[in-house]
């Protein structure tokens, strides 16, 4: 206490010795020092916010913000209230706390609704509705656990059981998926979702499950996909893969020849998905082979007789007097039967599914540009010989076959580069702005340090003068 008292007395005596200008300079320097120190401390201790949840509905965002206020966790709303940011150091802890309470869930509840609902006074209809709602939520949660899926909604149709077999109707399910930007589901994943849904609902067959994405595209199921007027998802996927493969071959080839952003390629293929099983049987008439041969020979010996006597009925019937004339008679009879086997060839042909019947390729090629006398860019179309060479290159890349009606068209048109130039200009501006923001942080730190240094220097000069 004596030390503090002596220090205070010394400061008071020094203050009384200062002139008015010196006192004013001391006050201003100290004020500037304190203001700079406060700004620096507030900036340095400001928490860095990280994303907690995104793509939220208004109900989910309201529920989360209400709970964050109760937990006294600071937050920021962005993207029109669809994204919530919290301090980076509290992201994982906050997610765990909210997940334990079933948030975000948009007010949804799985089978835990039966824990919070009294069964007393509940009718069988209410029980069935609650069970259906809980099952829908549980299925949606399971589907949302996939990395490619942001959100899922499941709609179930669970008909009441009828005591009559002829009046029974099968349950049905519809699943709506919201995929992450730039991602798509493989056919194995789609089939997995369909089997998961069918296996979770009693008596639900996989053909009664329909899956669509946020754009309304049918990914699986439904009666329409089995109709002859629609391609199944696997067929569409095969067609897309073949077209993307051929497009990539042509695009990379033209990229090396023409340079970036100088050609646009589109490929359309017609595939034959008819599955044909044909059995053919061939016979070779020239290739005869003896299969079996049967020979039979018979011989008999006896006397040669001549009928003689008076003419009449008795003699004609052989009952007249017999007279033997000449040598005894000999009779030989021979029979043969030959069976030939003709060469036969049986072939069973199974025609493959997904054979390419026709390929159509459309290529738009940009020309060249030169600077005119006035400094403006002038479009220079490519020559006919160059277009023919490019057409030949594209034909070789896609395996052109004239006999099946393939078509390849290469057109030279000027590209509209205004959008790309504007995009590049915006990118340069944003990059420049990011650089300015990055450098401004260090400039502010340098200014604060300079103000602190000058303030301390002024105070020291005042105290030592």
TrEMBL record:
<keyword id="KW-0966">Cell projection</keyword>
<keyword id="KW-0472">Membrane</keyword>
<comment type="similarity">
    <text>Belongs to the FliF family.</text>
</comment>
<keyword id="KW-1003">Cell membrane</keyword>
<keyword id="KW-1133">Transmembrane helix</keyword>
<feature type="transmembrane region" description="Helical">
    <location>
        <begin position="439"/>
        <end position="460"/>
    </location>
</feature>
<dbReference type="InterPro" id="IPR006182">
    <property type="entry name" value="FliF_N_dom"/>
</dbReference>
<dbReference type="InterPro" id="IPR045851">
    <property type="entry name" value="AMP-bd_C_sf"/>
</dbReference>
<dbReference type="GO" id="GO:0005886">
    <property type="term" value="C:plasma membrane"/>
</dbReference>
<dbReference type="GO" id="GO:0009431">
    <property type="term" value="C:bacterial-type flagellum basal body, MS ring"/>
</dbReference>
<keyword id="KW-0282">Flagellum</keyword>
<dbReference type="InterPro" id="IPR043427">
    <property type="entry name" value="YscJ/FliF"/>
</dbReference>
<dbReference type="GO" id="GO:0003774">
    <property type="term" value="F:cytoskeletal motor activity"/>
</dbReference>
<keyword id="KW-0969">Cilium</keyword>
<feature type="transmembrane region" description="Helical">
    <location>
        <begin position="24"/>
        <end position="44"/>
    </location>
</feature>
<dbReference type="Pfam" id="PF01514">
    <property type="entry name" value="YscJ_FliF"/>
</dbReference>
<dbReference type="Pfam" id="PF08345">
    <property type="entry name" value="YscJ_FliF_C"/>
</dbReference>
<protein>
    <submittedName>
        <fullName>Flagellar M-ring protein FliF</fullName>
    </submittedName>
</protein>
<keyword id="KW-0812">Transmembrane</keyword>
<keyword id="KW-0975">Bacterial flagellum</keyword>
<dbReference type="InterPro" id="IPR000067">
    <property type="entry name" value="FlgMring_FliF"/>
</dbReference>
<feature type="domain" description="Flagellar M-ring N-terminal">
    <location>
        <begin position="45"/>
        <end position="219"/>
    </location>
</feature>
<dbReference type="GO" id="GO:0071973">
    <property type="term" value="P:bacterial-type flagellum-dependent cell motility"/>
</dbReference>
<dbReference type="InterPro" id="IPR013556">
    <property type="entry name" value="Flag_M-ring_C"/>
</dbReference>
<feature type="region of interest" description="Disordered">
    <location>
        <begin position="294"/>
        <end position="330"/>
    </location>
</feature>
<feature type="compositionally biased region" description="Low complexity">
    <location>
        <begin position="302"/>
        <end position="327"/>
    </location>
</feature>
<feature type="domain" description="Flagellar M-ring C-terminal">
    <location>
        <begin position="255"/>
        <end position="415"/>
    </location>
</feature>
């Amino acid at each position: 206490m004596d030390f503090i008292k002596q220090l205070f007395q010394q400061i008071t005596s020094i203050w009384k010795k200062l002139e008015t200008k010196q006192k004013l300079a001391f006050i201003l320097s100290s004020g500037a020092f304190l203001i700079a120190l406060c700004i620096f401390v507030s900036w340095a201790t400001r928490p860095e916010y990280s994303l907690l949840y995104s793509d939220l509905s208004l109900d989910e965002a309201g529920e989360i913000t209400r709970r964050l206020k109760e937990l006294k966790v600071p937050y920021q709303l962005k993207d029109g209230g669809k994204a919530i940011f919290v301090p980076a150091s509290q992201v994982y802890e906050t997610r765990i706390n909210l997940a334990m309470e079933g948030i975000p869930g948009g007010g949804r509840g799985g089978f835990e609704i039966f824990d919070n609902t009294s069964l007393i006074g509940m009718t069988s209809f209410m029980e069935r509705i609650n069970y259906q709602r809980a099952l829908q939520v549980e299925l949606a949660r399971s589907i949302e656990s996939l990395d490619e899926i942001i959100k899922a909604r499941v709609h179930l149709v669970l008909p009441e059981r009828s005591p009559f077999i002829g009046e029974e109707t099968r349950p049905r399910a519809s699943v709506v998926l919201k995929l992450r930007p730039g991602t798509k589901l493989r056919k194995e994943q789609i089939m997995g979702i369909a089997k998961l849904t069918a296996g979770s609902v009693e008596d639900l067959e996989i053909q009664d499950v329909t899956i669509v994405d946020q754009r309304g595209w049918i990914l699986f199921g439904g009666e329409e996909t089995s109709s002859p007027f629609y391609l199944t998802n696997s067929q569409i996927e095969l067609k897309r893969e073949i077209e993307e493969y051929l497009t990539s071959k042509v695009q990379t080839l033209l990229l090396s020849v023409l340079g970036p952003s100088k050609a646009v390629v589109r490929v359309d293929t017609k595939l034959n998905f008819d599955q044909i099983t044909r059995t053919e049987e061939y016979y070779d008439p020239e290739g005869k082979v003896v299969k079996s041969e049967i020979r039979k020979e018979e011989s008999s010996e006896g006397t040669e007789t001549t009928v003689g006597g008076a003419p009449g009925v008795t003699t004609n019937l052989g009952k007249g007097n017999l007279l033997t004339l000449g040598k005894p008679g000999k009779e030989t009879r021979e029979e043969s039967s030959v069976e030939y086997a003709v060469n036969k060839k049986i072939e069973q042909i199974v025609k493959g599914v997904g054979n390419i019947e026709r390929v159509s390729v459309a290529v738009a090629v940009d020309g060249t540009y030169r600077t005119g006398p006035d400094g403006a860019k002038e479009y220079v179309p490519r020559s006919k010989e160059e277009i023919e060479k490019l057409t030949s290159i594209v034909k070789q890349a896609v395996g052109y076959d004239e006999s099946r009606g393939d078509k390849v068209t290469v057109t030279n048109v000027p590209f509209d580069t205004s959008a790309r130039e504007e995009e590049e200009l915006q990118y340069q501006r944003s990059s420049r702005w990011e650089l300015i923001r990055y450098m401004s942080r260090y400039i502010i730190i340098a200014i604060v340090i300079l103000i602190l240094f000058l303030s301390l220097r002024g105070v020291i000069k005042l105290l030592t003068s």
